[in-house]
Every structure is written in C-alpha cells, then in structure tokens.
Amino acid sequence: MSVSVPGNYYQYTDYNKNGKSLASKVEIRISCKDLPSLDSFSKSDPKVFIFLEKVTYNSDGTTTSAWENIDSTERIKNQDCPIFTKSFYIDYYFEMIQRLRFVVIDMDTDSNEWSKNDFIGYTEKTLGDLISGCEDNVYTAELLTEIPKGMKITNFKVRDNKRKGRILIKIKEVVNSDYMFNFDISGNDLDKKDTFGKSDPFIIISRIENNGEVC
C-alpha cells in the first residue's frame, strides 16, 4: 500500500487481485454555525484544519498513532457561520477505520500556523461514522472545547465561553465520469468598478446538486 497527498486529495492506493481499486472516493465540504467570537471587537476569522490518524503496528503487537495534518479550508474573515468553498476528496475503505479530526481555529493571518492562533473547537469522527450518521448527506456535530490529544494548543479563550459552535460536514460519494470538458473563459467590455484603475475580475464556477442546492 502506498500513500500520496496531491493537493487536497488524500489518497490510499490499494488494489485487489484483479488490479481494481478497493476504495470509494468521497467529497467533503465543511461549514460551521454559531462559532464564538474570540476577538475583542469583531467576529472570529475561522479556518478548519483536517487531520488523519496514522496507526503504526509495532513488532510487539502494540500500536502507535499520530495525527497528520492533511489539509485545511480557506480562512473566512469576521464570520460566525462560515461556509467554506474548498472541497476535499478522500478514498473510503469499508474495512478500514479512517479516523479524521476537524479543528477550527480563529486565524489572524492566512498562514497555516494554527498553533499560534486561537483554538475554537474540534470534532473527531471516523469516515464511516460520517457516512452512516449523516442526514441528507450532512453530519452535524457540536464542537468540543477541550484540547485534542497530542496537540500543543491553548483553549483558555473558548473554554469559558457559553456559546458552543457546531460543525457541519457534507459528505457524498464521487461518481467517476468518462467525460472530460475543457473550456476557455474570457470577458469583453467589463464594467469599470475602481475609481482610478480598471476592475480586477474573477469568475466563480458553481454547480447545482440534486436537491437544488448551489455550491
């Protein structure tokens, strides 16, 4: 079995005797609700870091586990109910326990130095729990405010906060398609929005889910 981490797709590569993959690929999207405000004069700037437990089997029959940070969402400024746009893809194995930890941090900058920023809360679930326990493809959990095992972080700002946030983990199977689409996008005569310069345009591409939701 080999492991690779290309971008935001965390992949195990494992095959049966016929050379076919044993995994089912799933997509994960994250949002939060009612996050506590840990800044003095504004709402928090949340970012979610995702960790995967890696278990090592020792020769004496014992096991050793360590948590690896495999990815993170973008940071959203001044928002207590953030909806993160970044998607994550992971291979799901029916006979393997894949434990994930979602840690929400109030980030002062766009860096990944989560240990130097304010801890908001976390939840820890197996990938199987997320799939079997979701409702309408969404698993909802209350954020725990105690320090996660093995993490060097402080929680003095959030532990006495009466507002307990929630994390919503949307998970669904990704169906492979034999089709690939390539297209070019350009614009002409765009409206000038800046006073002393041209606009700085960007394009948001969305899709419609089966339930009518746009993401």
Write a structural description.
- This protein is mainly beta.
- The protein has one domain (2-173): Sandwich (Immunoglobulin-like), CATH 2.60.40.150.
- The chain has one helix at 127-132; strands at 2-4, 9-13, 24-33, 46-57, 63-72, 88-92, 99-106, 118-126, 138-142, 166-173.
- The strands form 2 sheets. A 6-stranded mixed sheet has the order 1-2-6-3-10-9. Strands 5-4-7-8 form a 4-stranded antiparallel sheet.
- The radius of gyration is 20 Å and the shape is globular.
- It starts with a strand and ends in a 42-residue tail after the last strand.
Compile the SSE list and pairings.
Elements: E1 2-4, E2 9-13, E3 24-33, E4 46-57, E5 63-72, E6 88-92, E7 99-106, E8 118-126, H1 127-132, E9 138-142, E10 166-173
Parallel strand pairs: 2-6
Antiparallel strand pairs: 1-2, 3-6, 3-10, 4-5, 4-7, 7-8, 9-10
Please list the strands of the largest sheet in the order they lie side by side. 1-2-6-3-10-9
What distance separates the N and C termini?
Answer: 34 Å
Tell me the strand percentage band: 25-35%
3D shape: globular
Helix content: under 10%
Poorly predicted ranges (pLDDT <50, ≥5 residues)? 1-7, 12-17
Q: What kind of sheet is the major sheet?
A: 6 strands, mixed
- CATH homologous superfamily, by name? C2 domain
**What structural category arises from helix and sheet content?**
mainly beta
Query: Total domains, how many?
Result: 1
Total beta-strand segments: 10
